[in-house]
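Observation: inputs received (chain + copper (II) ion).
Thought: call the complex predictor directly.
Action: predict_structure
Action Input:
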Amino acid sequence: MSQGLRAVLLIAYLNLFAANGCHRQVAPEVSMTQEVSPWPVRVGICNVALHLKDAGAQPLTAAHVSLEADMSHPGMAPVFSDATESSPGQYRGHIELTMPGDWVVLVHIRLANGQKAEREIELKGVETK
Ligand SMILES: [Cu+2]
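Observation:
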């Protein structure tokens, strides 16, 4: 195999990986800031307020936002709920944290145009009620 061909194959191989990486990020650019209350987080109802902006830093309106709370240990069912838009780009929801410990809240965002994005909120060390 010539050096040239080898280089081409290597580039093709790297492109394959890059393409896979891109494929996972079909998600559009959505920026999210969040407020979680009460803080520190305790077992029970956890209120989540999300501020979503689009790539142009404008409020991301009319998205469908759902929350999925998972614990880091196996054998536990995730907790789901929906967030609703309370004002343009602001979404509020709550989830019930049923155990103390480390939780991750996955924020599933479906834009008005059908594109999807996902963000995470780590809630470490949720305290006993
Ligand atoms: Cu658990």
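Thought: report the result.
Final Answer: Strands lie at 31-37, 44-53, 64-71, 79-87, 90-97, 101-110, 116-126. The CA atoms of residues 42 and 127 lie 4 Å apart.
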